[in-house]
Amino acid sequence: MSLTVESISAAEHLAFVQKQRSVSFLQTPAWGRVKTEWRSESLGWYDGPRLVGAGLVLHRPVPRLGRFTLAYLPQGPALDWTGELDLWLDPLTAYLKAHRAFAIRLGPPVRTNTWSAVQVKVGIADPGVKRLPELPSEQVDPVGARVAGRLRDAGWLPPRPEDGFGAGQPQYTYEIPLAGRTEDDLLGGMNQLWRRNIKKAAREGVEVTVGEDLKAFHDLYVHTAERDRFTPRPLHYFETMFAAMSAEDPERIRLYLARHQGDLVAATILVRVGAHAWYSYGASSTEKREVRGSNACQWAMIRDSLAAGCDVYDLRGITSTLDTDDSHVGLIQFKVGTGGQAVRYVGEWDLPLRPMVYRAFDLYIRWRGHMRRRGR
């Protein structure tokens, strides 16, 4: 098989995505319209006249060197990762280098390891265990190990999630398998606290609806950001996100609003492509936290994902820490209560095409990260 890579239209790209069981929403044409600060391009892999793979490339210019770009394929591209990688990646490399990319970054949607909720809980309780990789994994995916080895052999640089260039998308996620399960199965897999909170929200009369009031969501989201000390995205970002993704597929994105006696107590955003659903954003009020609106929203999204025939409900990123002294451990403790499993992916890999420019950009990113840590 000999493959070629060329630019394709958004319509051709979308038609390919719609034939797949699962493609990341970050690899849809709509996502390129959401990331307005990047130039986006849809690429297709052809075996003769047949389109056999596709990817969304986000082109990021280098500061002060606008003629060169970082070519970024988040959680992609969508191709046969079980096949011979050189056949797929060599024509991508040639195409992007000819179009003035100084480096390629991609994140193969390929797992390497999974850990069950029980294993994660045991790890958190063990003071001798600090990170997920220190635990024996429940499942090891040989495809992931092979992909990582082939990328390394071909000169790609492995993930560095803790410093330097950094990872754009998390290497570790928390996911709830849905295929072949019922609502009772899913509730039974949750811990007692989660089940109790879902029941309490129902008893308190919390009502969850799918709505369109992005201003109400954003007000609550800003409140959440102030409380939890993170920088919120502006309202127009979410307006752009909903407009672009809904235009591509009316079922692509949904806003869930939880109200108690007329008060908005929680709001979440669900994204779905094929059989994969993602919890994308969430917000909650400080008042009335006892009515458990956030749990009610999560349960509504899980149930709707199950009803839509999804294979996976994805709670998205976690860190690898199991250290109770690390502030990040609270995130995995919250998510592990849903049952499910922690998953490690191959991660994001870089291929420098113009090493001098790549090194300069890497130094810039390191410096910027250092300044952010110092609060400047």
From TrEMBL:
<dbReference type="InterPro" id="IPR003447">
    <property type="entry name" value="FEMABX"/>
</dbReference>
<dbReference type="GO" id="GO:0009252">
    <property type="term" value="P:peptidoglycan biosynthetic process"/>
</dbReference>
<dbReference type="Pfam" id="PF02388">
    <property type="entry name" value="FemAB"/>
</dbReference>
<comment type="similarity">
    <text>Belongs to the FemABX family.</text>
</comment>
<dbReference type="GO" id="GO:0071555">
    <property type="term" value="P:cell wall organization"/>
</dbReference>
<keyword id="KW-0808">Transferase</keyword>
<dbReference type="GO" id="GO:0016755">
    <property type="term" value="F:aminoacyltransferase activity"/>
</dbReference>
<dbReference type="InterPro" id="IPR050644">
    <property type="entry name" value="PG_Glycine_Bridge_Synth"/>
</dbReference>
<keyword id="KW-0012">Acyltransferase</keyword>
<protein>
    <submittedName>
        <fullName>Vancomycin resistance protein VanK</fullName>
    </submittedName>
</protein>
<dbReference type="GO" id="GO:0008360">
    <property type="term" value="P:regulation of cell shape"/>
</dbReference>
<dbReference type="InterPro" id="IPR016181">
    <property type="entry name" value="Acyl_CoA_acyltransferase"/>
</dbReference>
<keyword id="KW-0573">Peptidoglycan synthesis</keyword>
<keyword id="KW-0961">Cell wall biogenesis/degradation</keyword>
<keyword id="KW-0133">Cell shape</keyword>
